[in-house]
Specification:
This protein has helices at 17-31, 42-52, 98-112, 141-147, 155-161; strands at residues 8-12, 58-64, 67-76, 81-89, 117-123, 165-170, 179-185. The radius of gyration is 16 Å and the shape is globular. The protein starts with 7 loop residues before the first strand and ends with a strand. Helix 1 packs across helix 2 (42-52). With 187 residues, it is α+β, with helices and mostly antiparallel strands. Strands 1-2-3-4-5-7-6 form a 7-stranded mixed sheet. The chain has one domain (8-185): Gcn5-related N-acetyltransferase (GNAT) (Aminopeptidase). A hairpin with an 8-residue loop joins strand 6 (165-170) and strand 7 (179-185).
Amino acid sequence: MADLAAAERLVEIGSTRGWCEQAAEVLREALAPRGVACWSTPAAARAEVDECLTEGWLCLGLANADELLGWVGLRPLYEHTWELQPLVVRPSAQGRGVGRRLLAHLERHAAARGIGAILLGADDEGGETSLSGVPAATFDLCEQLRVLRSLKRHPFVFYQRCGYRIVGIVPDSGTGYADIWLWKPLV
């Protein structure tokens, strides 16, 4: 499952300017339909790509010929737990296992570096879960975890299928929406 599909190759995003430009484009394309505003401009998307290329961090992509299908970044958070941000797949390549393959490659690279676990936040900016509209002042974590549902293909379901477990919820990350935190040990 984690092997490359026919004609795909794993690329380091920082290896060429072309991959960097395509990575910014994929970031914007993939998140625009979900209403994610933070990387909606070319400059903001490119700044995120540039940040992901910080020395020592991981930034991998899957390409088919000269087209970047998707990419993923991993940055230090704690000594043995790093943060995944972002994982994006070009809309025309979604539903074909690209995200799953990218994640598996990233996990193998991370484990080989001695990283013990991956943590990620899956924001609910577009009202895609049952957390949407729950006031932070009355937020009951146990109750919200019990009734948590995806309403519009929220990514937390994908991550759960890939072995990540929900370890917490931030009821309001400062912009009025919840952030679902997922974690996976690599060893």
